[in-house]
Amino acid sequence: MYKTEDILQAAQNIRPFLKELAGDEAEKIGQELDALLKQFHTSAKTDTDVLRFLKKNEKTKQWTAKFFESKGYSADGTKKISLLPGNSVTSIGGRELYTCPGQRDKCAFSDCECKTRDWARMGGKDVPMCREKNIPFIRKS
């Protein structure tokens, strides 16, 4: 199942996108999310309540699903099982391949890594962030 810290990170990372995702409802959703997170920190609510709230609106539900996919979760909330390096099309020479979750041809940043190629992860390097969407690159499946 989803880790609590990943659920809280999703709740924090969605904030800059609420206007785009929820339009006129963005301010209301932001206030409700703030209240819910405050209750979470006082043990009145659980991470499940936060996750349920993020999935209440269809567009925030889709954003949340992409966020968790980028963290290596399956749609059911379990961690994906990764194959041995080299046994899959998602790796080259033991490196995992990641791609930008945004639209490469419409990226506003001319020097963004997403414009030219997929990104290969070696060892414990951090996965880069999409500078336009402010979310991590997603692993190619």
General description of the model:
- This protein has five helices and six strands, in the order αααααββββββ.
- About 5% of the residues have low confidence.
- By secondary structure, it is α+β, with helices and mostly antiparallel strands.
- The relative contact order is 0.13.
- The two termini are 20 Å apart.
- Strands 1, 2, 3 and 6 form a four-stranded antiparallel β-sheet that branches. It has a two-stranded antiparallel ribbon with strand order 4-5.
- It has two domains: 67 residues; 49 residues, no CATH class.
- A hairpin with a 4-residue loop joins strand 4 and strand 5.
List keywords for this structure.
2 domains; 141 residues; 6 strands; two-stranded antiparallel sheet; alpha+beta
The biggest beta sheet, please? 4 strands, antiparallel
Q: How many strand segments?
A: 6
Tell the overall outline: globular
**What share of residues are in beta strands?**
5-15%
Order of helices and strands: HHHHHEEEEEE
Number of structurally distinct domains: 2
Q: Portion of residues in helices?
A: 25-40%
Which structural class best describes the helix and strand composition?
A: alpha+beta
The radius of gyration over CA amounts to 16 Å
Distance between the termini: 20 Å
- Average of the residue pLDDT scores: 77
Unreliable residue stretches? 86-92
Query: What's the tally of helices?
Result: 5
